[in-house]
């Protein structure tokens, strides 16, 4: 492959899914001998270090966090110094800011980390329609999402690439603990209130629901658990360091996701790698690619029914957990890096 690889984010060092995926891919490709750069258009308010010893170069264009001023001259100068590259523009916002500044012979890849279902109810679909078709490649998280964008956004250049797992666990969950695990920021879009309601309908002692994460919704969710009569069995664990999440997956028997929208949720991928079966709302091709028991979006009684089915059957938990781990093989870092290199080779032909 000729040329460098540049990953560009609105800000590259915020604690978030796009950033984690970006640094994981950057380190992996650099480890394979590629020249890799990670560019943040703005400085993060609270920079988070994803890789202890990065093999890639890191750059920040604007020194002001959340600045409305985008320094085009500085960005254009950096990209010119890097030279011809595969430029991975990680969001619609980055595409609109950088696509006109890319040097000649640079191949532009527009990446989208959400689902088609989410894009169509916000401004993203319009932006993707206007800009992604002019890029060399448009990359989505699942084959189904790539097809939907090709059909409904009239894109001739779609490709599907899943996000990678950072590592692969040797141990598998025993699936014997009476514990359902939910993980994510306690914010409105995650709709943990629906998960609490489904858990209340589906469960009886000794089953507990452990929520990993913090956020502004915690007081309301505690009150909701009380109203649903399960305050003594919904455990708010707060934020857990990424390095300690393996213990959480191994100590649970089911992972549940109740979000209004997701692309390819990391918590389901990591849980699957640990052999943990999942219950989720059917909100994207990415969620469907992981498997598990799916309920119609927003249908709390159906989510409760799926939870109850797994709570009542250790055999079903083991069957679905084994299937989940087999599916998660596709998200291991090395196969995903192979697919990125296949994309680069395809674009060079």
From TrEMBL:
Residues 180-326 form the Glycosyl transferase family domain. It is an enzyme of class 2 (transferase). One of its GO terms (molecular function) is glycosyltransferase activity. It holds the Pfam family Glyco_transf_4. It comes from the Bacteria. The keyword Cytoplasm does not apply. Its EC number is 2.4.-.-. InterPro entries: Glyco_trans_1, Glyco_trans_4-like_N. Residues 16-138 form the Glycosyltransferase subfamily 4-like N-terminal domain. SUPFAM superfamilies: UDP-Glycosyltransferase/glycogen phosphorylase. Keywords: Glycosyltransferase, Transferase. PANTHER family: GLYCOSYLTRANSFERASE (PTHR12526). This is Glycosyltransferase.
């Amino acid at each position: 492959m000729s040329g460098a690889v540049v990953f560009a984010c609105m800000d590259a060092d915020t604690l978030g899914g796009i950033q984690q995926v970006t640094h994981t891919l950057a380190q992996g490709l650099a480890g394979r001998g590629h020249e890799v750069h990670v560019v943040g258009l703005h400085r993060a308010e609270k920079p988070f270090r994803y890789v202890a010893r990065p093999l890639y170069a890191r750059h920040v264009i604007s020194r002001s966090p959340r600045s409305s001023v985008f320094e085009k001259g500085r960005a254009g100068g950096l990209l010119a110094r890097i030279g011809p590259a595969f430029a991975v523009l990680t969001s619609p916002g980055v595409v609109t800011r950088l696509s006109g500044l890319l040097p000649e012979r640079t191949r532009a890849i527009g990446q989208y980390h959400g689902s088609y279902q989410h894009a169509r109810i916000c401004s993203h679909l319009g932006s993707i329609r206007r800009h992604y078709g002019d890029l060399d490649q448009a990359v989505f998280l699942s084959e189904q999402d790539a097809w939907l964008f090709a059909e409904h956004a009239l894109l001739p250049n779609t490709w599907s690439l899943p996000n990678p797992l950072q590592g692969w666990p040797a141990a598998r969950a025993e699936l014997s603990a009476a514990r359902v695990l939910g993980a994510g920021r306690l914010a409105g879009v995650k709709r943990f209130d629906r998960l609490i309601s489904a858990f209340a309908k589906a469960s009886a002692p000794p089953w507990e629901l452990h929520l990993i994460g913090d956020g502004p919704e915690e007081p309301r969710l505690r009150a909701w658990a009380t109203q649903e009569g399960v305050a003594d069995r919904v455990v708010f664990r707060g934020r857990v360091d990424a390095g300690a999440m393996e213990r959480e997956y191994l100590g649970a028997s089911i992972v549940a996701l109740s979000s209004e929208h997701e692309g390819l949720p990391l918590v389901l991928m990591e849980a699957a790698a640990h052999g943990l079966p999942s219950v989720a709302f059917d909100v994207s091709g990415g969620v469907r690619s992981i498997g598990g028991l799916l309920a119609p979006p927003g249908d709390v009684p159906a989510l409760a029914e799926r939870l109850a089915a797994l709570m009542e059957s250790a055999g079903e938990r083991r069957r679905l957990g084994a299937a989940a781990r087999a599916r998660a093989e596709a998200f291991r870092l090395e196969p995903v890096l192979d697919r990125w290199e296949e994309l680069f080779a395809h674009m060079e032909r």
